[in-house]
Amino acid sequence: MTASAQKKDIAEVEANTAAAEAANVARAEVLDQAKKEETANAKTAVSKLEKGKKDATSAARKTWHDFQVDVWITNFNSYEFGFWKKDRNRGKSRQFTTDMDIFAEVIENGKRTGVLGYRRELWKDATGMNKRLVFKLFSETLNWKASMDMMLGRSVQQTLAAHGLPVPCYSINTSPDDYIVYLERSAHKWPLMPENFSFFLMEGGEPKFYRFRRDFINLGGDYTLIDQHGEHVGHIDGAVLTIGGKWRCKVRGDHADPRLLMVMKLFTGMIVFNGGARRHVKKLARDIHDGRIKPDIQRQEADLYLNPRRMR
User: Fold this and answer.
1) pLDDT (tens digit, 9 = 90+) per residue, 68-95?
2) Which of 31, 59, 95, 234 is deepest in the core (most CB within 10 A)?
3) Which of the listed residues 37, 62, 87 is the one where a domain comes to its end?
4) In this structure, are 53 and 86 located in the same domain?
5) Same structural domain for residues 68 and 58?
6) Where is this region: Disordered (predicted)?
7) Hey, which residues does 111 pair with through a beta bridge?
8) Are strands 196-203 and 64-71 parallel, antiparallel or unpaired?
């Protein structure tokens, strides 16, 4: 091979190498540009999603979910007045016990969407540790939605620890939730200061804390719903000039979870019995402390204290 041919071959190799290097550089630039565009598009999509969530949250904060709880003063209502009415009601729901007394209705958008009942015999006819409050929320067709039970064991425990200040405690079981909600009156209360009832809900594995604080100016049983950040996100406004009781309730749109609404409806129904519940728990704790009665817990309440990890 001549020197001229060798030089030509070397030139071709160098040209091919240079072309390959240029192609690699160009390819890298193209891939880098594509990656930048993909990242920018992803950031734009995330930004739009976050903006959409913020806009939705902002819109929800400006809306309110309203409902009304009306307490009836007699049993002359369509659910209980009539022959065999209670028997038919028990046939609709196993949660409708023989001593269930419907005492209030829930009105939303001008229509009845639910009713509240309590176990009359447990509260009116029983005494001592057998006397406790049990509320149930039903739909307008008497399908069970939620239950609220007074936990006498825990109520007495907390009351004794608070040196006699009544601390009623309740467990709430809502139909769409896997968790029990515990609602308790706070023992941190100064004389003449408003009472607080606290609870929390689990949402996506994260607890959200709330409390009902009785209003300073309180004429008809008024409470404000406050979240864990101290924001006022709901209100229960009791009417003054009523015989049975009427409460207008509202919850801010971004907190109007079905479970929270059920807790609020049950709590509103409990307001009617709140004074009697406090006196009952206070007397029980005093009688147990002084040895006048022997503590005993009903099986239905004891079941709520069972260890979920026990051997079955």
Assistant:
1) 999 986 665 565 544 445 555 655 567 7
2) 234
3) 62
4) no
5) no
6) 32-52
7) 108
8) unpaired
Q: What is the pLDDT of residues 239-283, one digit of tens each?
A: 876 666 899 999 999 999 999 999 999 999 999 999 999 999 999
112 by Cβ neighbours in 10 Å (0-12 / 13-18 / 19+) ranks as middle
Q: Is the dihedral of CA 218, 166, 177, 100 positive or negative?
A: negative
Q: Tokens 């939730």 identify what position?
A: 177
Contact 116, 262 (CB under 8 A): no
Q: 1 is in which domain, residue-wise?
A: 1-62
Instruction: Provide the token pair at 123.
Output: 């509260």
Rounded Cα gap, residues 129 and 90, in angstroms: 26
* CA pair distance 256, 237, nearest whole angstrom: 17
- Which one-letter amino acid corresponds to residue 275? G
Residue 160 phi, psi (nearest 5): -60, -40
CA–CA dist 296, 294 (Å, integer): 6
The token duo for 214 is 């009785």
